[in-house]
């Protein structure tokens, strides 16, 4: 008998905190790439990297900053292209 689709673990729920912690750098690199590509905040918020960074922040706010703050910092560091992405 198969498990109903609404009861199957999703990608972000199946990862435990140590695994998320181990891949934090990968999520940051993914967001950096999205910012460099000029993706809007709304678009970036729909990505797996955003979800995982948000989960890390929710679990360990003293250690991990909010994804919003990371996105804005990356936009500022990216110069004009990043600034345009923040306005979208």
Characterize the structure shown:
The chain is mainly α and 88 residues long. It has one domain. The chain is built from seven helices and no strands. Helix 3 crosses helix 5, helix 3 crosses helix 6 and helix 6 packs across helix 7. It is globular, with a radius of gyration of 15 Å. The N and C termini lie far apart (46 Å). The N terminus and C terminus are likely disordered.
> Count the strands?
0
Beta content: under 5%
Low-pLDDT runs: 1-9, 80-88
**Largest sheet properties:** none
Number of domains: 1
Distance between the first and last residues' Cα: 46 Å
Helix content: 55-70%
Number of helices: 7
Radius of gyration: 15 Å
Structural class call reads mainly alpha
Query: Whole-number average pLDDT?
Result: 81
Helices and strands, in order, run as HHHHHHH
Shape: globular
Brief account:
Pfam families: DUF3136 (PF11334). This protein is mostly helical and 88 residues long.
Attribute tags:
single chain; 88 residues; mainly alpha; disordered C terminus
């Amino acid at each position: 008998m198969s498990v109903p689709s609404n009861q199957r673990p999703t990608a972000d729920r199946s990862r435990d905190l140590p695994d998320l912690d181990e891949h934090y750098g990968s999520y940051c690199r993914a967001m950096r790439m999205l910012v460099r590509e000029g993706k809007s905040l709304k678009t970036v918020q729909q990505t797996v990297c955003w979800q995982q960074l948000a989960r890390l922040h929710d679990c360990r706010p003293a250690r991990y900053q909010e994804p919003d703050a990371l996105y804005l910092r990356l936009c500022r560091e990216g110069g004009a292209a990043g600034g345009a992405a923040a306005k979208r």
